[in-house]
Amino acid sequence: MPQQVESTRAGRYLRQPTGYSAFFPAPLPPEPALTLTGSLQGLLSQADRALGRLDGSVLTLPNPDLFVFMYVRKEAVLSSQIEGTQSSLQDLLAAEADLFDETMPRDVDEVVNYVRAMKHGLARLQTLPVSVRLIREIHGVLLDGVRGGRLQPGELRRSQNWIGPAGCTLATASFVPPPHEDVPQALSELERFLHAEDDLPALVRIALAHVQFETIHPFLDGNGRVGRLLITFLLTECGVLHKPVLYLSHYFRRHRQAYYDHLQAVRDRGAWEDWLQFFLHGVVEVAGEAAETARRIQLLREQHRLAITDGLGRAAGNGHRVLESLYDRPIVTVSDVRAMTGTTYPAANMLVARLADLGILMEMTGFARNRRFRYEPYVRLFTDDVVAEGEASL
């Protein structure tokens, strides 16, 4: 805990009756006002352009909704890994296909819940704005039946929490959020800021809101994941992105310590502009990666459609039907293919074998029965390529 506070721009530390100091965030926007000039203004324009290119890249795909949830799955995996889960994208896909084995990380259910929470929130945005009510709903979905599930899912905390290394106490914590009785008011002020009618750029509003949410830390568990979900929901709600295809957790995970340091620097020194630089750099970087993924999806789809047309003869129609379904659900069984195509089991089995010969499907279990086939070239486009811990730099 800092002994001397250099700035109260983001809020202030107040000593509590039992001796520890808690942080009380000031309402947004910051005072003195943000300095959105010079390099920061240029970076904001660069981020806007990068998001525009990403949006255009995804919307030119033949059926964008088919591809959206692979982006969502990647964000779910990366955001959960920041909180210490070990599950990979491959583990998540296997769990969704009910393919469990003893080598699968036990925390995969947490990632499955993240996908559920994302889908729930995106659906609710059709009728409900980003709000405390929505945040509580997605928190309830996120923690349902998993680690932290006993810590009041969907309910604002009713006790003091803190952030720090394992075994730390309130007195030795790295950061102590406001007391629980102040959380409802702080969230209400954040909600008002989210929907204020002013000329603050959308990306700046979203970046500020993320820090404020993490500072309030309104739940006993799951605050980091909900705070990153909030970024996606706000990008979608304000129309910056038409589809939730920005996996910003990739950048936060790659620069994890810098991410935490920037959040704390805002609280201690009011370093909002430094945080905005970091955040907007991430938007530019990840938007470019996601747009490149969209381009590669398009090329892969064209390549495999041509291979099916040239290689499957009269079965090409069913082959194309299976291919399109794989973009949303990249692991299938022969029975799945039979249901998709309305053919007999032997015909579906033959179709799967021919798609495997073309390099489109790959058998992933090694079993003689209950086999699962993965659209390996497509999954590979989303495989996490984050460099090893300690090798990344800003």
CATH architectural arrangement of the largest domain: Orthogonal Bundle
Spatial order of the strands forming the largest sheet: 3-5-4
The backbone outline, from C-alpha atoms, is elongated
The total count of helices amounts to 15
Q: How many distinct folded domains?
A: 2
Mean pLDDT: 90
Which consecutive residue ranges, at least 5 long each, have pLDDT under 50? 1-5, 386-394
Output the structural class: mainly alpha
Mind summarizing the main beta sheet?
3 strands, antiparallel
Pfam families: Fic (PF02661), Fic_N (PF13784)
Protein name: Protein adenylyltransferase
InterPro entries: Fic/DOC_N, Fido, Fido-like_dom_sf, Fido_containing, SoFic-like
GO molecular function, one term: protein homodimerization activity
Question: Can you tell me about this structure?
Answer:
- The chain is mainly α and 394 residues long.
- It has two domains: 11-293, Fic-like fold (Orthogonal Bundle); 312-381, Arc Repressor Mutant, subunit A (Orthogonal Bundle).
- The chain is 55% helix and 4% strand.
- The protein has 15 helices and five strands.
- The chain has helices spanning 38-59, 64-82, 89-96, 108-124, 132-143, 183-194, 202-216, 223-237, 249-254, 256-269, 272-311, 316-326, 334-341, 345-357, 376-381, and strands at 11-15, 21-25, 331-332, 362-363, 373-374.
- Strands 3-5-4 form a three-stranded antiparallel sheet. A two-stranded antiparallel ribbon has the order 1-2.
- The radius of gyration is 23 Å and the shape is elongated.
